[in-house]
Structures are given as structure tokens and as C-alpha cells.
Amino acid sequence: MKFDIITIFPDLFKNFIGESLLARAQKKKLIKINLHNLRKWTTDNHKTVDGRPYGGGAGMVLKVEPIYKAVKAVKSKKGKTRVILLSAKGKTFDQKKAQQLTKYDQVVFICGRYEGVDERVAKHVADEEISIGNYVLFGGEIPTMVIMEAVSRLIPGVVAKEESIKNESFAKGATKEHPHYTRPEVFILNGKKLKVPPVLLSGNHKDIEEWRAKNSK
Fold first, then answer.
1. What is the dihedral of CA 171, 90, 142, 113, to 10 degrees?
2. What is the pLDDT of residues 125-161, one digit of tens each?
3. Which CATH superfamily does the domain covering 2-152 fall into?
4. Where are the domains of the chain?
5. Mean of the pLDDT values across residues 11-37?
6. Parallel, antiparallel, or unpaired: how do β-strands 50-51 and 61-62 relate?
7. What is the pLDDT of residue 170?
8. Do the domains at 2-152 and 169-214 have one common CATH topology?
9. Which residues sit opposite 83 in a β-bridge?
């Protein structure tokens, strides 16, 4: 899968995509991540990407023209592509949407900034608007990271032990994953013994699976 990110702050992504499993996935050619500076598609000497809102109001609005040119330039002519505008008024992202996005060959992210993005981008350039929650951020860069990571880890081979994906939170209709424990068996905190549930130490796989199922709803 290929991710193309259109932003005015491409450097924000460099450490994120260069570490951990995302870096390994790129090295294994399971995913490809391209960063695009929106200012590349401006026409004036100041590389202006925003303007004052019509009708007045605070802040600046990202212009439709450079975004349209950027999407047109990076959008693949082959395969299935989804163009996503990160927006506070978009539909809230969830695990179901992450799974849906794995069906595409390319996902293009448009990272909003400032007061917002010209509405013509949402209606005529992007395929959909997505939010990661009911709150406002400085821009769409962090939401893009969230979505890209959630989608990438569902691509076969990105996570070595794919069994962990099948049994984690929001899988198989569960709203949360079962609790996890590891050594030590007993941890003393403020004089209190905090013990691992006995069933997990029993070796009885049937009882363990039942306990996990019971604690995953």
C-alpha cells in the first residue's frame, strides 16, 4: 500500500515514519510513504497556501487551488485510491474504517491547518472527511499519523505475530481487549500483593480462553 501525505509541515513526519514497525514495513516494501510539501504547488514568490476567509472571521483558510493540483499530481492512475481530508467535522475514525482502507492501493491524506480548508476541497477534491475525535488540533498531521498506523498494522506482514491482531481490542466485535499480565506473578505495591489471576497460571487453555472472552466485552 502507498500513503501520500500532503502537508505544509512534512518534517513533522520524518521521525515518525523512520522508526519502529513503520520503518520495517517500508524496508520490506509492504508500504510506501511519500511526503509532499503543499507549497510546491503554489504559483507566487511567497508560496502562499492560505487566504482570508470570505465573509470575514478569524484565522486563515487553506486554498483549494494548490490542494487540487497536489492531489492531481500524486494520485495514482492505476489501482484504487482514496483521498482523505483530515477535518474536525469529518466522520469519526474507528477500527472498521481502518479495515476498509486496507482495501485500497493508495491513500492520499490532505492535512488541514489554520482556521480550516476551503469547502470546495471537501466537496470536490477529497473522497471523504475523517476526524479522530471530537476535539480540535492545530492541523491534520497527527490524525494522519494515527490513521496511517492503524491501517498499516492490518496489512499482512507488518506485524510479525498476526495472531495478536486477531485478538486485540475492537477485533471480532469486541469493544476492548482482555487484560494482559506478565512476570512477576506477584507485585507488591504499597504493601498490597497484586497477583496474576490464577486461571492464567493454570495451563488450562479452555478456561483461559473463556476468561479472556468474558473480559473482552
1. 170
2. 999 999 999 999 999 999 999 999 999 999 999 998 6
3. SPOUT methyltransferase, trefoil knot domain (3.40.1280.10)
4. 2-152, 169-214
5. 96
6. antiparallel
7. 54
8. no
9. 108
Query: Do residues 54 and 44 make contact, with C-beta atoms less than 8 angstroms apart?
Result: no
Prior bond of 66 cis (ω within 30°) = no
Q: How far apart are CA 109 and CA 103, in angstroms?
A: 16
DSSP classification of residue 85:
E
Q: What is the pTM of this model?
A: 0.85
Rounded to an integer, what distance in angstroms lies between the CA atom of residue 64 and that of residue 187?
A: 57
The residue with cell 489501482 is 79
**Residue 157 and residue 149: Cα distance in Å, rounded?**
14
Count of residues for the chain?
A: 217
- Minimal CA–CA distance to 22: which of 131, 203, 149? 149
Candidates 1.10.10.60, 3.40.710.10, 1.10.1270.20, 1.10.3900.10; CATH matching 169-214: 1.10.1270.20
- Give dist(CA 167, CA 150) in Å, integer: 15
